Amino acid sequence: xxxxxxxxxxxxxxxxxxxxxxxxxxxxxxxxxxxxxxxxxxxxxxxxxxxxxxxxxxxxxxxxxxxxxxxxxxxxxxxxxxxxxxxxxxxxxxxxxxxxxxxxxxxxxxxxxxxxxxxxxxxxxxxxxxxxxxxxxxxxxxxxxxxxxxxxxxxxxxxxxxxxxxxxxxxxxxxxxxxxxxxxxxxxxxxxxxxxxxxxxxxxxxxxxxxxxxxxxxxxxxxxxxxxxxxxxxxxxxxxxxxxxxxxxxxxxxxxxxx
Length: 259
Description:
By secondary structure, the chain is α/β, with parallel strands linked by helices. Helix content is 36%, strand content 19%. The chain has a seven-stranded mixed sheet, with helices on both faces.
């Protein structure tokens, strides 16, 4: 087991990933905005690949809706939870695997490929490029690829301030960008940096979406909203999530493109 695999497995073996997207309004916002954009392009009969499926929040959701889903997950602990929730009425295959190697799949296999977690934990340019290339390769021509990434300033504002003395200066460069290395767990990007990475690939840009926006920074307030108030906040986030002037402090971004 290499260094990355050991560190990432240890992290998720001791973290409740299964409840992350539903445990409060702030985390649920990411799920709702992501789902909204995915469903703008899903068509009946589409085959979905989710790479880095975690415990299956998206994979199981779409399998329950009748889609043919294939799930790849890097962490066995997460994969076991995903498998335990599969029911007989679902068409879903769940396998252990790494985003940087999808060689088990032929070219042009899936109508939509979701990469909603792996780039959080890839620490060098070679692996990042390989994961993106593999996701594009296995997607059908004209199909949709959705790739989530996290932003350096969003992560800083959300949690790094609480650990500033512990993390500074080792976790940051001179511009306070979080440095990518396995021990830090998360591997962030600047938004323009990620756009430039994607320009190297043969895809057509569609959307770059702030899926939680300023929500994590205002988490205490947002989590205290009533259900009706939260619905208004979701509408607000949907209305502003592609505004570049408001994206910088979003923790989670979703880049969508067409092959």
